[in-house]
């Protein structure tokens, strides 16, 4: 081969190398910042892009790779997750607590992410830590443990505003672990146990109170019902006795009328009835097992007279 052949082969190789360097393939959801002679030139889009080798070059950016900060000229536009290590924060009531946070963010403006901040992951991490300390410092321990959603919302709002100038959108912030000191945990456990015992005693006493109230109300209702029943019974008994007396009086009136018709107007029917009762009493005394001695009052002679009158009546 002559010299011209070598020169031609060298030219072909250089053209291939030059073409390879000029053609830049960008994957989907990624981009590159191209500088031309040290100045910003373009932001490459996904697909095939053409640059001028040795004049254009990709700007490098710091990224977090497996827990280490490394330089890369590829900018990932997808949502990224940063799991920050645990940090110590102090609550409003001076309790030191360890908190671990997850941050979900996305680069929406590659130009700002490259030129507005030197180390984007480290800046976001430090900003998250300082903001978290400020938010927790305004809350007591109990509020910190029960207000995760509130803390997440506040933290996301502050970070989103602060990182806007870096071309970053903070989508979510999640607190993974909130770990108070062991002594505080033991005290909280005892406090919760005491609170549970207190609630149990309160519920037991309230149950006993309700049972006693129901029992007393039941006894009251029973007494009222018994009194009402006795009242109705007394009313019915009195009404029955009144009806019986009325019927008896009516019968006696009929009997007196019959006697009056039988004995005539000349004889008093009352004397007749009295004498009849007297005779009935004497019969009962005569049939009894007790002594047959009978003492009659002085006024009994009138009764005897009435009996005599009846005798004369029947003779007539």
Folded structure, characterized:
- The protein is an alpha+beta fold and 316 residues long.
- 58% of the residues lie in helices and 21% in strands.
- It has helices spanning 3-22, 110-115, 120-137, 141-146, 148-163, 182-263, 269-287, 300-315, and strands at residues 23-26, 30-31, 33-36, 39-43, 47-50, 56-58, 61-65, 68-72, 75-76, 80-83, 87-90, 96-107, 168-179.
- Helix 6 crosses helix 7 and helix 7 (269-287) packs across helix 8.
- The longest helix is centred in the C-terminal third of the chain and has 82 residues, at 182-263.
- The protein is rod-shaped and about 185 Å long.
- The model has no long low-confidence stretch (mean pLDDT 81).
Ranges where pLDDT stays below 50 over 5 or more residues in a row are none
How many β strands by DSSP? 13
Q: How many whole angstroms does the radius of gyration measure?
A: 59 Å
| End-to-end CA span | 193 Å
Provide the structure class: alpha+beta
- Portion in helices: 55-70%
H/E topology pattern: HEEEEEEEEEEEEHHHHEHHH
Largest sheet: 4 strands, antiparallel
- Mean pLDDT across all residues, rounded? 81
Content of β-strand: 15-25%
Shape: rod-shaped
> Count of helices?
8
């Amino acid at each position: 081969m002559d010299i011209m052949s070598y020169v031609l082969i060298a030219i072909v190789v250089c053209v291939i190398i030059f073409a390879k360097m000029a053609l830049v393939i960008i994957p989907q959801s990624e981009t590159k910042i191209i500088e031309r002679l040290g100045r910003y030139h373009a932001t490459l889009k996904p697909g095939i892009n053409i640059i001028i080798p040795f004049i254009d070059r990709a700007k490098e950016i710091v990224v977090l790779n497996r827990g280490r900060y490394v330089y890369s000229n590829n900018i990932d536009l997808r949502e990224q997750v940063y799991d920050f290590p645990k940090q110590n924060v102090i609550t409003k009531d001076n309790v030191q607590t360890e908190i671990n946070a997850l941050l979900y963010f996305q680069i929406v403006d590659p130009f700002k992410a490259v030129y507005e901040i030197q180390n984007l992951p480290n800046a976001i991490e430090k900003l998250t830590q300082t903001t978290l300390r400020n938010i927790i410092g305004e809350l007591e321990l109990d509020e910190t443990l029960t207000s995760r959603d509130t803390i997440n919302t506040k933290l996301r709002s502050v970070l989103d505003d602060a990182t806007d100038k870096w071309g970053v959108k903070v989508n979510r912030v999640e607190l993974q672990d909130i770990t108070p000191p062991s002594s505080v945990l033991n005290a909280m456990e005892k406090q919760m146990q005491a609170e549970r015992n207190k609630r149990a005693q309160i519920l037991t006493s309230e149950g006993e109170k309700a049972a006693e109230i129901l029992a007393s109300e039941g006894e009251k209702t029973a007494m009222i019902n018994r009194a009402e029943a006795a009242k109705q019974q007394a009313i019915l008994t009195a009404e029955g006795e009144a009806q019986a007396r009325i019927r008896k009086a009516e019968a006696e009136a009929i009997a007196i009328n019959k006697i009056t018709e039988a004995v005539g107007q000349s004889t008093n029917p009352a004397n007749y009835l009295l004498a009849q009762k007297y005779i009935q009493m004497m019969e009962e005394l005569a049939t009894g097992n007790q002594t047959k001695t009978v003492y009659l009052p002085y006024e009994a002679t009138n009764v005897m007279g009435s009996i005599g009158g009846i005798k004369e009546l029947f003779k007539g």
